[in-house]
Every structure is written in structure tokens, then in C-alpha cells.
């Protein structure tokens, strides 16, 4: 507790030394505590498209802001390898080094946007990112956790998200090198999986977590391309462990948080990962068990949102909320509701997703008056000093916000 308060005090002090950042901090304060606009504002389609464009442009900026990685060769000479991944921005510490994991699934977002808008330049950016990811793949087949500067060991969840991006680039380019890398990664995921279906070895914190349902779908994607049943079997084994062992009757999941301390009330971000993974896998496999498991949890959050026009950052086993809003999780669950609308044609999902995106549009708009490093970005929390990614703009928040807006547009087009 003391360490957290100290960090908050230091961050607040340095932010107040910069006029623009101080203005942004105060805008969050007034918007959250003295205005209900972020709960009530409705945006038209032109404004939604502009918000999407801003989010995409910020992601492209986040790629430009990465810096070369110092690498020590065998002769002990230091060389610099160009980094084509995606960074995040912190109001005090500036741009981070890039995140291999999120770079992998940002590829999906940028490719979808490029296809919709005929942006060939974005395909170049995406391919450069994929080529960079190939250079940092571990000998085992996995990819490291954290940001690239952390130089951490390979991690299950992170590896799976990179598979998502590389498979898409393989489909776009027909270059087998991307497919070979994903097969090597999928083989490693199968190798380190526990016989009961979960991942513990090489998992984040070395504990089993249900949000590895978001690992299962990339395995199914590799199965779809290769027809190797072991990838499908590994995914199903984990999915069964989740729905049979870890989900409560009210839809809540055990072992869902990305901490040990707060595992009794996981964050919306990892809850949404879990739901999204189950839903995508269930849709692909045409298995109602997984779709219904996802729907049960998504409906619990939908009921809370319909009642309060707001979702908290954490939820306990009775779906009691706590902590400030986590923008990433809000964008993710909006995307889940849009997928459920396509499956069920229930308009309640669409209305909730649009209302949630309205809130995120409002939060994004707060940044318009500050420097380019924030313009178009989405903060980790609202207000920005919330416990999740405080005073920061994680690249994955902008990614899921863009995904959700494009999910809306896809429904409109159909």
C-alpha cells in the first residue's frame, strides 16, 4: 500500500510540472466527478469513424515510437536491432519499449482496418512487425512476456497472441515462414500444457488461469490451417477444464485474475479475455457448451451495465464491483456483446455495446487538447489514476477500442 501511494504521489508531482499533462489530469478529474457526459453522450456515425481513425493513427504512432534493441553478440560488441513492434505511452516515463504479445494481436486490428479503408501502407507496417516478431522468437518456439526491454522467458498467453498476427500475415503474403513460426509455437504450447488441460509451466506467475481460453483460439486457428488434430485437442482440453472446473453457476470464473493477491475479484480485462476466448472457440467448434458459458458471464455483465450504465474494474464471485473503470476491459466486453448480437440477433447486446463505446469515445476526446502522444489513445483506467495502468495509455486499450468500433460497423454493413 505504501509503495503504491508513493508511486502515485511521484507521478502526480511530475505531471503537474507539465502544463499540458496537468490540464489532462484535471480534465479527467472534472469529467469523472462532476459530469455524467461520459455515461450519457451519444455519438453519430461520422464521429465514430473519426474516433476509429484517431485510434488507428495512434497505434501507428506507437509503432514509430519504438526504439532499437541493444543486442550483445558473441564478440561482445553491441548492435542495435530495429524494433517494429508497438509501444505504450506513460505520462511520466514516456514511451515504453514494444510489447511482443500485444504487437501480435494489434496486427489483426490494423489489417482489418486496412482492408476496410484500402490502406496499403498499413499492410507494410504490419508485415514489418511480423518480420520483427520472427527475429525474437525463442528457440523453444515461444515468445517472451512483458515488453521487449524486460527480456523475460517465453510465456504461454503471450505466445498465443503472436500466433494470431502471424497467421493473418501468412494468409496475406502466402509466405511460409510465418506459418512455420506459428507451428513451432503451437507445438511448444502443446508440449508445456498440463495433462489436465491448463497451463502452469511457462504461464504468467506460473499458476493456471482461465483466461487461457484466449490461448485456445489461436491453437484452433493453427489447426484450421494445418489440420493437425493435436492443436484442436489441446484447445478443447483447456476449454473443458474451464467450463467444467472453474465457472460458477452465475457465470463468474475462478482463477481469472492476473495477480495472486486479488484472484478473488479479477479485473474486467481478464474476465473479458476469458469470455471472448470461449465465445470464439465455441463459434468455431459449433459447440453450444462454450458459447453458453461465454454468454452466461457476458449476460451477467450486461445486466450490471444496463442497471448502472457503468462497469467497475473488478468483480467478485457475486458480481459485486470494485475499483475504477478499466477502459480495456470495457472495450473488450463491448466487442463480446457485438459478437453475441450477431449470433442471437438480440438488440440489447447492440445497444449496450454502442453505449459502452459512447463512453470510450468521450474518454478518448478528453485527450484532444494535449500533445500528439495522447491524441487518439485510450487510458488504462478512467479516471487515469485508477489502479490498472495508472497515468498510462496502453496500446492494447486502443486496439480493443478500434476492434469494437469496427465490430459496430460490420453489423451496420450487414
Description:
This protein is mostly helical and 414 residues long. The chain has one domain (26-413): Glycosyltransferase, CATH 1.50.10.10. The protein has 15 helices and 9 strands. The strands form 4 sheets. The chain has a 3-stranded antiparallel β-sheet with strand order 4-3-9. It has a two-stranded antiparallel sheet with strand order 1-2. The chain has a two-stranded antiparallel sheet with strand order 5-6. The mean pLDDT is 92.
Note the topology:
Blueprint: H1 2-15, H2 19-33, H3 37-40, H4 45-64, E1 69-72, E2 78-81, E3 89-90, E4 94-95, H5 100-117, H6 120-135, H7 156-173, H8 176-192, H9 213-226, H10 229-246, H11 268-285, H12 288-308, E5 314-315, E6 321-322, E7 325-326, H13 327-344, H14 347-365, E8 381-382, E9 392-393, H15 395-413
Antiparallel strand pairs: 1-2, 3-4, 3-9, 5-6, 7-8
Write a short abstract of this structure.
The protein has 414 residues and is mainly alpha-helical. 60% of the residues lie in helices and 5% in strands.
> Which word captures the global form?
globular
Question: What is the overall number of helices?
Answer: 15
- How far the N terminus sits from the C terminus, by CA atoms, comes to 50 Å
Low-confidence stretches: none
- Taken together, the total number of domains comes to 1
Largest sheet: 3 strands, antiparallel
CATH-defined architecture: Alpha/alpha barrel
Q: What is the string of SSEs from the N terminus onward? A: HHHHEEEEHHHHHHHHEEEHHEEH
Strand pairing plus helix content: what structural class? mainly alpha
Which radius of gyration do the C-alpha atoms yield? 20 Å
Strand order of the largest sheet: 4-3-9
Strand content: 5-15%
CATH topology: Glycosyltransferase
Mean pLDDT value: 92
> Total strand count, please?
9
CATH class: Mainly Alpha
Measured as a percent range, the helix fraction is: 55-70%
Amino acid at each position: 500500500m505504501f509503495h503504491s501511494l508513493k508511486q502515485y504521489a511521484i507521478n502526480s508531482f511530475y505531471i503537474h510540472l507539465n502544463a499540458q499533462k496537468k490540464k489532462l489530469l484535471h480534465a479527467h478529474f472534472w469529467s469523472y466527478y462532476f459530469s455524467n457526459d461520459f455515461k450519457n453522450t451519444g455519438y453519430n456515425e461520422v464521429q465514430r469513424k473519426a474516433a476509429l481513425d484517431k485510434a488507428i493513427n495512434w497505434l501507428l504512432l506507437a509503432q514509430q515510437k519504438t526504439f532499437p534493441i541493444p543486442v550483445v553478440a558473441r564478440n561482445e560488441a553491441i548492435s542495435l536491432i530495429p524494433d517494429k513492434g508497438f509501444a505504450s505511452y506513460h505520462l511520466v516515463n514516456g514511451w515504453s519499449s514494444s510489447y511482443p504479445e500485444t504487437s501480435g494481436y494489434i496486427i489483426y486490428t490494423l489489417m482489418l482496418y486496412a482492408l476496410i479503408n484500402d490502406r496499403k501502407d498499413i499492410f507494410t507496417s504490419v508485415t514489418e512487425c511480423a518480420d520483427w516478431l520472427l527475429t525474437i522468437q525463442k528457440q523453444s518456439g515461444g515468445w517472451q512476456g512483458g515488453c521487449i526491454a524486460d527480456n523475460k522467458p517465453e510465456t504461454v498467453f503471450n505466445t498465443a497472441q503472436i500466433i494470431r498476427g502471424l497467421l493473418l500475415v501468412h494468409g496475406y503474403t502466402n509466405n511460409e515462414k510465418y506459418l512455420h513460426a506459428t507451428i513451432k509455437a503451437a507445438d511448444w504450447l502443446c508440449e508445456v500444457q498440463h495433462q489436465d488441460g491448463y497451463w502452469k509451466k511457462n504461464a504468467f506467475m506460473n499458476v493456471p488461469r482461465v483466461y487461457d481460453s484466449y490461448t485456445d483460439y489461436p491453437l484452433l486457428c493453427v489447426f484450421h490451417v494445418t489440420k493437425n488434430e493435436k492443436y484442436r485437442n489441446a484447445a478443447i482440453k483447456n476449454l473443458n477444464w474451464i467450463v467444467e472446473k472453474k465457472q460458477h453457476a452465475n457465470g463468474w470464473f475462478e482463477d481469472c485474475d492476473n495477480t495472486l493477491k486479488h484472484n478473488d475479484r479479477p479485473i474486467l480485462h481478464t474476465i473479458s479475455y476469458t469470455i471472448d476466448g470461449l465465445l470464439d472457440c465455441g463459434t468455431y467448434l459449433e459447440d453450444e457448451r462454450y458459447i453458453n458459458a461465454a454468454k452466461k458471464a457476458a449476460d451477467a455483465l450486461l445486466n450490471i451495465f444496463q442497471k448502472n450504465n457503468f462497469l467497475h474494474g473488478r468483480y467478485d464471485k457475486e458480481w459485486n464491483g470494485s475499483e475504477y473503470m478499466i477502459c480495456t476491459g470495457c472495450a473488450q466486453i463491448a466487442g463480446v456483446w457485438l459478437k453475441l448480437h450477431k449470433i442471437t440477433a438480440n438488440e440489447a447486446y447492440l445497444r449496450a455495446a454502442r453505449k459502452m463505446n459512447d463512453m470510450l469515445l468521450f474518454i478518448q476526446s478528453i485527450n484532444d487538447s494535449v500533445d500528439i502522444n495522447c491524441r487518439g489513445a485510450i487510458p488504462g483506467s478512467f479516471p487515469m489514476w485508477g489502479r490498472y495502468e495508472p497515468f498510462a495509455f496502453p496500446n492494447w486499450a486502443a486496439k480493443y477500442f478500434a476492434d469494437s468500433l469496427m465490430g459496430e460497423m460490420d453489423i451496420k454493413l450487414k
